[in-house]
Amino acid sequence: MQSGIVFGSNNRYLGVQVESHQNGIIIWKVANGSPATRVYDTSSRRYMSLEPGDIIQTVNGVRVFDPDQFVHLILTGPPVSIIGVWDVRNHFIRFLAAGVGPSYEISAYLNQGNRNLNNKNTSSIQSISPKYQSISAPQKRAEIQILEVQIQSLNRKIQDQERNCSEYAKWGDKKPGATNLMLQNSARSLLETYEKQKRDLEMKKSKLESGM
User: Fold this and answer.
1) Could you tell me which of 50, 57, 62, 64 has the C-alpha nearest to residue 17?
2) What mean pLDDT comes out for the span 22-44?
3) CA gap 90, 32 in Å, rounded
4) In CA terms, which of 46, 67, 77, 210 is 20 to 30 Å from 3?
């Protein structure tokens, strides 16, 4: 199935042909000169191209399961979409900012971010760490969306671990023992780790948002 190659110039498109995959949707063709050939890697802060074999897992924080859903998310999303892609060559996930809308929409979207940044008072901007002061408003927007995806993932892990803690406690009540106690302690420790990670991410997100 194809996604985003034949759409008109006034529609959103990425420029890849994809098909379903057990971990998302896999790219098997990239259109020459399409937005997919110039996406911004928010980790390395460099431009790159999507490649056949890459697996798209999320679009704007939403888990992608089939090509039709992918097309819908691109068409109905912002002109700059954040795409989570599993890089099969380097074996890690990249979060990529892709300009999928018409150029005038992309410019307005990015300029809006710059105006929001300029409207903040000096003390608010200075309160951001040097790391965040050094990046542009569009980059901040992209990093905020990445943090939101990571926070959502931790929320699910926290919920799962809370259920584990509850189950282990029930088992311990029915059949006390060293093994059950060890499981309970391990589950609580992991839950605390996830909660701390979530607080750290929320703090980073708050610092970024204070400069938008």
Assistant:
1) 50
2) 89
3) 23
4) 46
Higher pLDDT, 54 or 182: 54
Supply 11's token pair. Answer: 């529609």
Fold for domain 127-209? Answer: Methane Monooxygenase Hydroxylase; Chain G, domain 1 (1.20.58)
Give the 3-state secondary structure of residue 145: helix
Distance CA 78, CA 59 (A): 11
Question: pLDDT digit string (tens) for 48-69?
Answer: 999 999 999 888 888 888 999 9
CA distance 73 to 93: 19
Rounded to 5 degrees, what angle do the CA atoms 180, 186, 191 make? Answer: 125
Q: How many residues does the chain have?
A: 212
**Dihedrals phi, psi of 40, to nearest 5 degrees:** -100, 120
What top-level class would CATH report for the domain 2-101? mainly beta
CA 204 to chain CA mean position, Å = 15
Residue 91: which pLDDT band, with cuts at 50, 70 and 90?
confident
Dihedral over Cα of 105, 145, 68, 89: its sign: positive
CATH 2.30.42.10 intervals, the chain: 2-101
Q: According to CATH, where is 1.20.58 located in the chain?
A: 127-209
Question: Between β-strands 46-48 and 62-63, what pairing exists: parallel, antiparallel or unpaired?
Answer: unpaired
- Cβ atoms of 129 and 211 within 8 Å: the answer is no
